[in-house]
Design goal:
Layout lengths: L14 E4 L5 H10 L4 E4 L7 H5 L3 E2 L3 H7 L2 E4 L4 H9 L13 E4 L5 H15 L2 E4 L2 E2 L1 H7 L2 E6 L2 H11 L3 E8 L3 H29 L7 H5 L7 H12 L9 H18 L4 H12 L2 H11 L2 H4 L2 H4 L8
Parallel strand pairs: 1-2, 1-4, 2-3, 4-5, 5-6, 8-9
Antiparallel strand pairs: 7-8
Helix pairs in contact: 4-5, 8-10, 8-11, 8-12, 11-12, 12-13
Length: 313
Amino acid sequence: MTEPTGPQEQGAERLGYLGLGLMGVPMARRLLQAGFQLSIWNRSAGKTAALAELGARSATSASDVAASASIIFMCVTDAAAVEDIVFGQAGLAKTPGPGKLVVDFSSINPDATRTIAARLKSINGMGWIDAPVSGGTKGAEEGTLAVMAGGDAADIERVRPYVLAMARRLTHMGPTGAGQITKLCNQVIAGCAMIVLAEATRLAANAGIDAGRLPEALAGGFADSIPLQLFVPRMVQGIHSPPLGHIATILKDLDTVVEVARKTSTAVAHDIACRAIVQTGGISAWRRRRRARGLQAVRSAAPLSGHRFRGRH
């Protein structure tokens, strides 16, 4: 992708960015480097300083950002944070919204997305696109994120050139909420993959081979993946900083997977197990706790999957 590096073109939209965490900072930085006008706001004001030095306007509130921007990007922790920024004191709902769009990169429950979008539209006429991302902090830094979007097709085409300053791919998956459902599918795969990668890395090390060579050895084969290439070297070397994400985030998303699965009669027994493994600190620890609890945590998944869990699973 060719990056726009010159000054903002005449007629380009004014942009805003809310939420300057691990993902928000590098994504907002790329918008500034592309030459776009950008207003920023974060609940912890200290995180705006570095971006302000690059030319961003530090706003006093989410409402202040919305007053000066026609497209407002947002990336925060969970649905409660989204609701607070949208409907709280000095939130987006306090500003006239016709013709303006919110692009929410946060990962939240699809039902929450639909409710928030409809409520905001009824209050001030502001549009909504749910656009969760995948690719982690590395993807945010390099502009290689995958963005999966739900909303009106015309709205998505309107924001496409700005999103592609931050991402490699923007895919319209359907109406409001479709982006969030797609992200849950991503988390089903990614969440379990992390556990499997840790198990494979430990197996290699315990069996006496150089686990650090796994990415090279498996490159191009069926086991190859971006997580394999990115995370296994960190696992082998015990690299924890800078963080590429938070365990709490994947646990939150796996909880949402289970909730949506129950509503759609979808079997997700493996994801319940993966969540338990992550929460308890690894497969070996999880197995010990399972035995101590008499397999109760895993049996709770049986009604969803149709499987019967017996003693040696």
